[in-house]
Amino acid sequence: MIVVEVDPGICGLMSKITVNSNDEKTAAVDITSDCPAVKAMGEDLKEVDSRKGCLSRIGGSPVYIAAGKRCHAACPVPMAIIKGIEAACGLAIPKDVTIKIYKE
């Protein structure tokens, strides 16, 4: 089981993504979130084909297709879902991703 926790920044609507895979081809995705848009997106992503979800171009990934119906463009949750699927399905090693935003 892979768990990805997302602190999205200024909106403060935390999300927790849990991903399981028994065959490395299909990922069972469970999303809990303070964000109604992310919760709704999670309903479309209960089961994701790992190759389509992770190896497609952004416009072809079922994760980004679901996000495009509900989330704003800067939402980091879709990327976090894909990272979780990659790790659960053996397409990548689990590793934190960091984005730092500051004004100079």
Could you characterize what this model shows?
With 104 residues, the protein is an alpha+beta fold. The chain has four helices and four strands. Strands 1-2-3-4 form a four-stranded antiparallel beta sheet. The chain is globular and about 45 Å long. It starts with a strand and ends in a 16-residue tail after the last helix.
In short:
The chain has 104 residues and is an alpha+beta fold.
Question: Which tags fit this structure?
Answer:
alpha+beta; 104 residues; 21% strand
Largest sheet, spatial ordering of strands: 1-2-3-4
- Summarize the biggest pleated sheet: 4 strands, antiparallel
Query: How do the SSEs run, as a string of H and E?
Result: EEEHEHHH
N-end to C-end Cα span: 40 Å
Write the layout of secondary structure elements.
Elements: E1 2-6, E2 15-20, E3 26-33, H1 36-43, E4 47-49, H2 50-55, H3 62-68, H4 77-88
Antiparallel strand pairs: 1-2, 2-3, 3-4
